[in-house]
Amino acid sequence: MSTRAVTNRKAEKVNPFVKIWRGICGYFRPLGQALIHGDVFTKLSFLLSGCGYFFHGHEQEVLTHDVVPDEDGHPKSITIKSRRYVNQWLRGVFYLALEALAIVALIFWGVPNFAKLSLNSLQVCTINEDFEEICPPGGPDNAFLIVLFSILTILILVFWLFIHLSSVKGVYRSECDIKEGKPIKSARQDVHDLLDEHFYITTLALPVIGILTFTLVPTLMMILIAFTNYGGKSGGETVQIHNFSWVGFSNWGNLFSIGGGSSFLSVFGSQLLWTVIWAFFATITCFFGGLLLALLLNAKRTRFTKVWRTGFVLTIAVPQFVSLMLIRYFLADEGIVNNLLIYTFHLIDKPIGFLSDPTITKFTIILVNCWVGFPYLMLMISGILLNIPADLYESARIDGAGKTKMFWSITMPYILQVCTPYLISSFVSNINNFNVIYLLTADSVSSNQAYIDVSARESDLLITWLYNMIAGGAKHEYYMASIVGIIMFTISTIFTLITFTQSTKGDRERRLQ
Amino acid sequence: MANDRVKLWRLNIERAGKKISHKLLGGASQEDEVVAFDVHLQKGDALILDGGVRDLRYNCLDKDDAQCSEGREGIMVVEQDGTYDIHLSTAKRGNERCSILLATPESAKLHQQQMHNLGKMRRKKATDLLLTVLHNLFIAVLVFAWLIPIFWLILVSFTGNLHGANISKFFPEVWTFQNYIDLFTKTGDVNAFPTWFMNTLIVSVCSTILSTLFVLATAFAFSRFNFKKRKGLMNISMIIALFPGMLTMLVSYYLFEYVFKIQSGLVRLIIAYSAGAGLGYLVAKGFFDTIPTAVDEAAKLDGASSSRIFFQILVPLSKPIIVYTIITAFMSPWVDFVFAKIILGNNALPAHYTVAMGLINLITAGNQVDWFGVFAAGSVIVAVPLSVLFMLVQKYYVGGVTGGAVKG
After folding, report:
1. Contacts of residue A314 in chain B, CB cutoff 8 Å?
2. Confidence of residue A114 (pLDDT cuts 50, 70, 90)
3. Among A144, A301, A319, beta carbon nearest to B356
4. Which residue in the set B237, B390, B407 is minimally distant from A316, CB to CB?
5. How would you write A236-270 as a 3-class SS string?
6. What three-state secondary structure class fits A81?
7. CA-CA distance, B394 to B317, in Å (whole number)?
8. Closest Cα in chain A to B383
9. Do A200 and B363 make contact, defined as CB atoms within 8 angstroms?
10. CB atoms closer than 10 angstroms to residue A124
11. What sign has the CA pseudo-torsion A101, A102, A104, A108?
């Protein structure tokens, strides 16, 4: 690299804080200008979102399309130029409607719930001496809903604010354009743009609203639950459902203070360890197993390849809740495998607890996961094998490389290169692998009191434990579930970011060739 | 594929532009075939190999058995008069390659060596056959082991329910079709299979339409537009998808119950399955990225708008990925039992269940004694169409699970 290029790069390098500061300034500068230099309608737009669009307009040249009959009477499309008064009323209507929506949300969802957001003086139902339930007028308060509605309102307000500010900038821009005599976009043009230049707004609108409502809001809500005692105990009494309060960081304090005598930490530690071990072995065994199967099926000697492939793929195609449920019965204490070993072969006296002994269960689970995972990886690696460029082998053969040599220096590196990101993401998805463990061990019970206290079993991963805490057992320990969820989220995020930076480092396939 | 086609290769020998002799060779489907013959050649004769050979090598051996020339062209010109032994041989199965070996009479030794090798090869072929049989037998055993649970599923579905659930025997003591009949007729509080089936069908069809639209729309926006917040939105969507879905579903329940006040379980499930679908845009985006932008630009020059480019150019070009998206979206309501349970809440009546929820309910907590066979029958009925669908899309599935890492 030449020295000039180096100095150039140095000059471009800016302190990230400066960069952020410049970004903020760049965002607010047009707003300031609008406030100082804008006309009365632009200033009014700060209050009534987009109202300037109604009043900013001028006469400009407009192109319209029309269909007229030509000499032969056939329809013919022509473009007519005309001068017309143009304003952007459609944008005005849109931004005003959004503001109205935001205000409605603030009044009906926000105000009543913000008032109670401290969760200090919740109205609850009480039971009097005659064992009658007396509820406050208007029903008891539901802390969950108070928090949920508050989050919804805050999110709506934040998003509205962003849209509102950009609308003010837009109004100011249209004012400037009119002053300079430049054309502005008519309502018709705006609609047309939504199908052309700005088509991405049209396509993204619904998916983004769906994701915000049913993914972002729930995520924020569940993160907040970690700072409450929802479903936990306070003063020896189980907190009544829907009636919880903020506890700040004390949940996290309890989790990380060993002296607290809480069985949560010890269970959490061992579950986390088991989750990582499981994810590691589940990923590694399936990768190598799948690789072996793929090589076996792609070998020169193999006949009826399609039949064998179909057989393996069938095991993926059958829903897991069916196949794994059956395997659970298969390996049960009184199941077929134990019966065979005891009564047919007389190898053992009493059944092996494939799925009832905590230690053996872990091995069984990893083995059964091989049953699930090998065909998957086989399918995938077969695809990769087909994609290895044939000329790589060709040139290796000319150079006199043998089969083994070619496998280790072409096939394996290629597969590893392509699979590394997949392996990391499959590690993450194994951390979140609910089906295998839940379906195999759903009816087993721990004999260890520490585990029973926190509705866990030895074989539980964090994710199945989470399920037990929110939906499985009689108790609903939401605040613990939330903590576990946040920790899982953090682990998954870290690994995903690693994959992401790895896979964007460079074009893998080109480096290989 | 090359090895599916039987093709003959022909060696023509020409003298002064006229064919004087030719020999045929088995072609690409034959493995290591050798044709050897003697021929008297004059200087200037041409040996021409045809038959669409992609890759031809020839060797010429002179009097000292040393290699005198080598090349990959289809034509070779003889440089010396004499009687030659010519060996035509095909290369390994599947490779469209053929090679000619020209030998002078003086190198007859080499010819003999070749014939000797041929005999060796025949003996090798016998052991080869044995190895092939063993190899395939081994695979067959593996496949059989993998299929045991599925065989058992089918057997259980035909097992008569004489002494309660039969979970300890592989083969039924009494064969019966009763489980399938019960599945559809013995409906009530526990079993409502026909209703479950219809529920799931409605949910999966509706959510498939919605989520396919969402996925394609999102993928198109990220693949073809370069707007300001693009990178940020893509990063956020990657991270946000990692929060445990179970917890977000729990809040979704409250959203449905108290905020949007949707009581219908079917509507709830349709929304729950499709609302976040946009997050799964990555595979489709990877596919769109492989379609050259030159295609759009040409259309744009002709005056097509982005929406028309999307609907009339990209969508028709993206059939594989659309099929993949549709089928994965269609299958998920059939196999999901966790989210559905959380979304419907604890008080849901069996009539509102989906197939997966209902079937699992059949064999949990006390029910399994009576309903194990019916569960198996229901599972078979659900698994058959799903398996067929999966078989149809498995090749797209490979591209899908690797996240576009494998490009065909």
Report:
1. 147, 150, 387, 391
2. confident
3. A319
4. B390
5. CEECCCCCCCECCCHHHHHHHCHHHCCHHHHHHHH
6. strand
7. 19
8. A318
9. no
10. 14
11. positive
Residue of A nearest to B388 (CA): A317
B contacts of A217 (beta carbons < 8 Å): 251, 255
Local confidence band at B242 (pLDDT 50, 70, 90 cut-offs): confident
pLDDT at res. A281: 94
Domains of chain B by residue range = 7-103, 178-404
Tokens, residue A298? 């792609």
pTM over 0.80: no
* Partner-chain residue, chosen from A319, A321, A339, that has the shortest CB–CB distance to B168: A339
What residues have CB less than 8 Å from A150, skipping those under 6 apart? A109, A110, A113, A114, A117
Which tens digit of pLDDT belongs to each residue from B1-17?
Answer: 334 444 566 777 878 77
Give ∠ CA A144-A150-A151 in degrees, rounded to 5: 90
Ranked by mean pLDDT, the top range of A82-86, A459-463, B135-139 is B135-139
> How much is the pLDDT for A511?
34
Residue A279 token pair? 């994810």
Q: Which helix (H) or strand (E) holds A83?
A: strand A75-87
Residue A506: what pLDDT? 44
- Identify any residues that bridge with B47 across adjacent strands, giving them in sequence order: B13, B76
Q: Which of B276, B375, B401 sits opposite A215 (nearest CB)?
A: B276
**Nearest residue on chain B to A418, judged by CA atoms?**
B405
Tell me the mean pLDDT in the region A170-183. 85
In sequence order, the β-bridge partners of residue B102 are B60, B86
A380–B132 CB contact, under 8 Å: no
Residue of B nearest to A333 (CA): B168
Q: Which of B11-25, B197-211, B284-298, B381-395 has the lowest mean pLDDT?
A: B11-25
B167 to chain A, minimum CA–CA distance in Å? 6
DSSP state letters, A359-375: HHHHHHHHHHHHHHHHH
Comparing A37-41, A90-94, A134-138, B401-405, the range with the smallest average pLDDT is B401-405
On chain B, the residues whose CB falls within 8 A of the CB of A373 are none
Residues of chain A with pLDDT > 70, as a percent, come to: 88
For residues A491-513, one letter each, b for 16 or more C-beta atoms within 10 angstroms of the residue's C-beta and e for the rest, the string is: bbbebbeebbeebeeeeeeeeee
Across the interface, of A152, A215, A428, the residue whose CB is closest to B240 is A215
Whether A251 contacts A239, CB under 8 Å: no
| Residues pairing with B24 in the sheet | B10
Residues of chain B by 3-state class (helix, strand, coil), percent to 5 = 60, 15, 25
Residues contacting residue A78 through CB under 8 Å, at least 6 positions apart: A65, A66, A67, A68
CATH code given to domain B178-404? 1.10.3720.10
Task: For residues B408 and B401, give the distance between their C-alpha atoms in angstroms, rounded to a whole number.
Answer: 14
The residue to which tokens 């020999």 are assigned:
B23
pLDDT at B94 over 70: no
- What is the distance between the alpha carbons of residues A293 and A284, in angstroms, rounded to a whole number? 14
Q: Which of B367, B365, B343 is nearest to B353 (CA)?
A: B343
**A129–chain B nearest CA distance, Å:** 30
CATH architecture assignment, domain B7-103: Sandwich (2.60)
Q: Is A412 helix (H, G, I), strand (E, B) or coil?
A: helix
| Nearest residue in B to A485, CA atom | B244
Best of A219, A275, A489 to disrupt the B interface (most B CBs within 10 Å) is: A219
Burial of A223 per CB tally in 10 Å (0-12, 13-18, 19+): middle
CA distance A2 to chain B (A): 31
Section A421-436 average pLDDT = 86
Query: Closest partner residue to B307 among A196, A210, A467, by Cβ?
Result: A196
- Give residue A103's pLDDT band: very low, low, confident or very high (50, 70, 90): very high
